[in-house]
Amino acid sequence: MKQPVTGGASRPRLDELRARVDEIDREILGLITSRQRLAKEIGNEKRALGHEVVDLAREQEVIERLAALARPPLSPRTLKAIYREIISAARSVQEPVSVCYLGPEGSFCHEAAASLFGHAAELVPEAGVQDIFSMVERDLCSMGMVPIENSYQGSVGITLDLFYEYDLKIQGETYLRIRQHLLSKEGALDRVHTIYSHPMAFSQCRKWLGEHMPGVQNRETSSTSEAARLAAKNRGVAAIGSEMAAQVYHLKTLAKGIEGDPHNVTRFVVIGKTRVKKGVRNKTSVLFTLPHKAGALSKAISPLAERGINMARIESRPAKGKRWEYLFFVDVEGHQEEPEVARALKEMEQACSYFKDLGSYPAGGEPWE
């Protein structure tokens, strides 16, 4: 057994190092307090000028500039996490911000909202994606966070459909690496007789479940966090969900990283009513329908290629209530404040039978773990 070090020479050195850390902490606290005061003044100026308090483009610029200056042993990822909370605290003294997300508490959508807005924001769980759109439309929440696509299973259809139904804009995006864990009040796999989770989570973990939990009943729920809530209330039950869900519902982790694809990433977007100014890196999203003519799609997207604008994504969905008509969703790199992007979009609109601008916004960076 390793014995504790009790030598007299080491203790003064330890005390000296800790004293230096305490002094640095006092300096950091003083600087953060000064930063908060300045943030409050900036909020007053924004209101006087009629500007939105939440400025995701500016926040992205600050975080990416500082991350580029990070040096070991401080990693860019750690610095981003620290400054996300510092900026969240600064935003809270300017104006309260509420963000609704697909709940219950502990969902991956909750995790995505916390990663982008920090814990000083009011994060409000909603039962469904349509509830989130409705809350934002009725000004009951400042913004909403919704899933839009997954690298493993593709687009989230209901989110795409609701962009057609509601007059809301995309204001930002974030990518979250999806890590699925088996969570339970039980302490061993052989004590689990039922597993709850969302259908997508079951699909992502099918191989592991077949190898390690054959014959165990799988029951679908509306979300992974709802599954965790049920696991917390019942013996012999486990849930497939996130590390955040384990913390929220006080569950043990029986197995980590059981998803089949270690590169499984979900893209989430922020929805709101206002337009976002140009940031460091930007995307623009639109949806449209086409006339029934040969070459209609080629004609609609050709203005992008002619101007060297990269189309990052194109997706089609059946238009609800319109037989054999399709909605096309397109993401392009760039912002509408850029003249070439603005001209290309105008030409696209002229080639479409229906065209809807979903907004320009800061592009998400590396996925949050």
CATH class of the domain at 275-369: Alpha Beta
Number of alpha- plus pi-helical segments? 12
Within the CATH hierarchy, at the fold level, what is the topology of the domain at 275-369? Alpha-Beta Plaits
- In the CATH hierarchy, what is the architecture of the domain at 275-369 at level 2? 2-Layer Sandwich
Shape: globular
Spans of at least 5 consecutive residues whose pLDDT stays below 50 are none
Alpha-beta classification: alpha/beta
Question: In percent terms, what proportion of residues is strand?
Answer: 15-25%
CATH homologous superfamily caption of the domain at 275-369: ACT domain
Question: Sheet with the most strands?
Answer: 6 strands, mixed
Number of strands: 15
End-to-end Cα distance: 36 Å
Q: Radius of gyration over alpha carbons?
A: 24 Å
Helix proportion range: 40-55%
**H/E topology pattern:** HHHEHEHEEHEEEHHEHEHEEEHEEHE
Summed over residues and divided by their number, the pLDDT gives a mean of 91
